[in-house]
Amino acid sequence: MTYQNAQPHGIKPFKPLPRLFGRGALALVIGAYTVYTLGPFLWLATMSVRNTGEISADHYAWPSPFRWEQFRVAWVDSAFDTYFWNSAIVVVTAVAVVTLVGAAAAHALARYRFRGNRIIYGILFSSIIFPPQITLISLYQILVDYNLYNSLTGLTLVYISLQLPLTVYLLEGFFARIPQDLFDAAKMDGYGDIEIFRRIVLPIGMPAIATTLILNFIQLWNEFLFAVVLISDPEKRTLPIGIRAFMGDHFQDIGMIAAGVMISVIPVIIAYAFFSEKLIRGMTAGAVK
Amino acid sequence: MAVVQLDSICKRYGGVGPVAVDNVNITIADGEFMVLLGPSGCGKSTTLRMIAGLEDISSGTLSIDGRVVNDVPAKDRDIAMVFQSYALYPHMSVADNLAFGLKRRRVPTADIDRRVKEAAQILGLSQLLDRKPHALSGGQRQRVALGRAMVREPMVFLFDEPLSNLDAALRVNTRNELIRQHHRLASTMIYVTHDQVEAMTMGTRICVMNGGKVAQVGAPLDVYWQPADTFVARFLGSPPMNLFTLPVASNGAEIGGGPVLGPLSRWREATLAKLAGQEAILGVRAEDLHLSREAAGAAGGTIRGRVFAVEPLGAETLVAVETDGGVECTARLPRDVAARVDEVIDLHFAASATYLFDKASGKAIPADGETHRPHAPRGALQ
């Protein structure tokens, strides 16, 4: 008979107290943060199904009745459908170009030794440091000169130029950590530069690419400043400017603004839900082995 | 099947930088297992990468099977390489990793399947074909890397320190596996390592490199018993060969005096006459040092020193002594040796176990007498 592996049955080991406190504190912080972020969102959601009169009477009352028609009014009568599609076209195109061009540029900067590599990188990096507002007037003039002012094409190009440097910067950091041996192995396996980019860099860099993709999407979907300056035609407004139209100088249609914001938030939530797993992997990505 | 010929190969980074590989001339025969051996930074990996086509050749000619390939891209050289880090594609399964190179070469799908399965079976990977590399152990990854090279059926295999990430026990197994695969494939293989045990056990020939230059090329035991210079003498062998810089007697009959004295009966008088009265380097391997004169052989020399370390290794004991002149030397003695720290002992060696090197150049001064090769023909039963 051996007692070596004997384990007492039915007695659960005590968890050390500090660990319990740690868990509790963590839950408390996360709970407080959730209330802090989710609270305004829920408040906005209740306001989106109430009209402005009801909201003025009691800011925080529960909707009664639920006025779902506000969404129809916003979408159809207030041309939110136009704004939505304008935003979708501009943002999806810009994000697609930024992702593809940014990934290719980041790969080139991370992998190839060529004259001026670090100078290009430095220029890109410097454009991240300065606030984008300082380029506003010159961009306006350039768009006017090239007949791109007040066009979705012009806005798309501006969005690409705004997001490209940060994208290249983030991806370069990630791609540079992919071991050189993988590229050498693919070369020995017979693959050329473009195929190596497509078959090795893109799949391995997918968590980082997804991260930049979602960050760019959210940033551009909510972009207001450049859109309001570079677009004047109501038919070409994007969502943030469309929502702004509900704000008069003396009267604000809070209920409709809330409904508009809710509409504009939906794609962001979908994008986040779709890419969140990859996003987290991208943020926590360590060595690529 | 291929002969790889390196003719005056040089590598200079940035065109004007220091020379990483300096005038390397080696011909690697068809089916040979050539080991490039040397310390870090000696240029062995750079040489291998030039053969692979991953580094440009600054000057010289590289030919494979008679065809000059200096300007032929890596993918068209029909060479496969196993990397130190294994370089497995992390997003692909084992099967895809093995098939990746074949797909690019438009090998028919049925053929790819057959080759992948065959390699997987030989290397014991059949159960792991659907796994991703991160779900494999170090040894399994190593075998996948080897399999990826094997399925390509290349003319030449290159290995860049493929065992250095494995633990000691696995390294021995994988070493034997590689030797077996070399016998099975009979392909030309070039293997880079800094591990002398790998070099001695695996190589048909070894090429010892130092400072970008070839120090010596030869069969492992030839290089061990007839080192070309003090670098090779100390690099091959563990513990390294003991070297003493000593004056040669005016009559040229012996070297040293005082704590270290060695007879020079292996060398011809004409050779010794040139050295008489000057300093030269005497070399004796650790395993050729004995505690008694009888064990060392009748004629020979002696080293007297104070023991400062005793390292019992189980099968044998390493005893390190320091002579009066402050020179350290190590003896590989029987396991039951009774040496104690601070004890003064005499270590004896046979005249036939000595090596002599030029003090200025470090080059070996060839002996004219019997060749010191105490192991006799390996495996011979007499």
Architecture blueprint of SSEs:
The complex is a heterodimer of chains A (289) and B (382).
Chain A: H1 17-48, H2 52-57, H3 69-77, H4 80-111, H5 117-129, H6 136-145, H7 152-175, H8 180-188, H9 193-204, H10 206-221, H11 225-230, H12 239-244, H13 254-284
Helix pairs in contact in A: 1-13, 3-13, 4-7, 4-10, 5-7, 7-10, 10-13
Chain B: E1 4-12, E2 19-28, E3 33-37, H1 44-52, E4 59-64, E5 67-68, E6 79-82, H2 94-104, H3 109-122, H4 138-151, E7 156-160, H5 168-185, E8 188-193, H6 196-202, E9 205-210, E10 213-218, H7 220-225, H8 230-235, E11 242-247, E12 254-257, E13 260-263, H9 269-275, E14 279-284, H10 293-296, E15 300-312, E16 316-322, E17 328-334, E18 344-350, E19 354-358
Parallel strand pairs in B: 3-8, 3-9, 6-7, 7-8
Antiparallel strand pairs in B: 1-2, 1-4, 4-5, 9-10, 11-14, 12-13, 13-15, 14-19, 15-16, 15-18, 16-17
Primary descriptors:
heterodimer, A: 289 residues, mainly alpha, MetI-like fold, 13 helices, 71% helix, 0% strand, globular, disordered N terminus, disordered C terminus, B: 382 residues, alpha+beta, Rossmann fold, OB fold (Dihydrolipoamide Acetyltransferase, E2P), 6-stranded mixed sheet, 19 strands, 31% strand
Structure, explained:
The complex is a heterodimer of chains A (289) and B (382). Chain A has 289 residues and is mostly helical. Chain A has 13 helices and no strands. Chain A has helices at 17-48, 52-57, 69-77, 80-111, 117-129, 136-145, 152-175, 180-188, 193-204, 206-221, 225-230, 239-244, 254-284. In chain A, α3 crosses α13 (254-284). The longest helix of chain A is centred in the first third of the chain and has 32 residues, at 17-48. With 382 residues, chain B is of the alpha+beta class. Chain B folds into two domains: 4-230, Rossmann fold (3-Layer(aba) Sandwich), CATH 3.40.50.300; 239-358, OB fold (Dihydrolipoamide Acetyltransferase, E2P). In chain B, 25% of the residues lie in helices and 31% in strands. Chain B contains ten helices and 19 strands. In chain B, β1 and β2 form a beta hairpin. The model of chain B is unreliable at 374-382 (pLDDT under 50). The chains are: A mainly alpha (289), B alpha+beta (382). Chains A and B meet through α8 and α9 of A and β6 and α2 of B.
